[in-house]
Write a structure and sequence with these properties.
single chain; 203 residues
Length: 203
Amino acid sequence: MRSSSWSRCNGRLLLAILLFVGFLSRLAAQGFINGSFETGDTTGWYSINSSGATIPFAASVTDGSDWGAQNRRATDGTWFLQVTDSGSFFQDVSTIPGATYHVSFDFQMALNEPPGYYWSATWDGNEVIRRDGVAAWRWNHFSTDVTAISEVSRFSIDYNAYNWYQFDNIQISSVPESPATSAIFASLLLIGGVAHWARRKVA
C-alpha cells in the first residue's frame, strides 16, 4: 500500500517537474515577433522618434519582385525588410537573467556601399556585430551569442545606409548549455537522488 501511494506521489512530482521545465523552455526560447516579416509589414518592430518616444517601426517590406532581373528573394518565406537613410529598429524579448542566447539574421545589399556608411546589431545597447562600407553581396548569414542581464532584453539594428539594406529571418534561441538549462538538469538530478533514497527507505 505504501509503495502504491509513493508511486502516485512520484508520478505527480514528475508531472509537475515536466510542466515547470516546459514553462522555462518556452520562456527561454521565445522568438522575435515577425522576425521574417511574413506579415508583409513591420508588425512587432519599433523605433524611437526624435522626441525619444517608442513608436511602431515604419519601413518598406518587399518580396523583391519590383527589382526585375535583380530580384533577390527572401531567405525564407516571401517577404523581407529593406531600409535606407539612417535609423534603427528593435524588439524587446523575455529572457532569463544570466542565460545565453543565440541571435542570427540574414543581410544583403544591392549596390556597393561607400566608406562612412554602416549597420550594426546591438544587444541591450552593446554592439555585437558591425559592418562598415562593405561591397554589394547576396544574402549572408550573421550570428552571435549574447547574455541576458534582465528579464527583458532589447535587440536592435542601427544603420546609416547610402544604398538599400535588406534584413530577413531574424531569430533568437536559447543556448543549450546556458546557466538556466544547467540549473534545471541539476535540479532534476537532485530530485531523482532523493526519490531513489526514499524508495530504498520504503522497501
